[in-house]
Amino acid sequence: MKTSQKAPKTSVQIRDWPIEHLPGVSNENQSQLENCGITTTAQLIRMTKTPAAKVLLAHQLQIDIRYVNKWVAMANLARIPSVGCQYCGLLLHAGVASAAQLAQMPVERLHQQILRLHVATMQRNDLTPSVDRVQKWIQQAKLVISP
Predict the structure, then answer these.
(1) What stretches in the chain show pLDDT beneath 50?
(2) What is the pTM of this model?
């Protein structure tokens, strides 16, 4: 009797980070989030699944909704292991707001966007991640969003 062998599906381990590792979250905001029961990026994502939940959190923290939206976008990008908290802010500032959007990006175009961002903001291009690293982000984003 023959058994069919399926190729194992390549997967990626979604990451969860302490909220203090998320760029742009001040110590005060971190304390406020902890008071709301949010100590990790996964908890932030879970507690802000709907627009109403984001508005509620912004109201509880007495901050502009744009901050909550920014943190949630970065937390979602940080779930991708090769992106993490190190590059989630860079991607957001380069115009990538979600793993789904990242998964659809042509690697060369994204690399050029990041290069332009580095040159415009820091007058440096030597800090730009390599094309291979950007490709890895895109590949892992596809795995993160797949069912």
Answers:
(1) 1-8
(2) 0.88
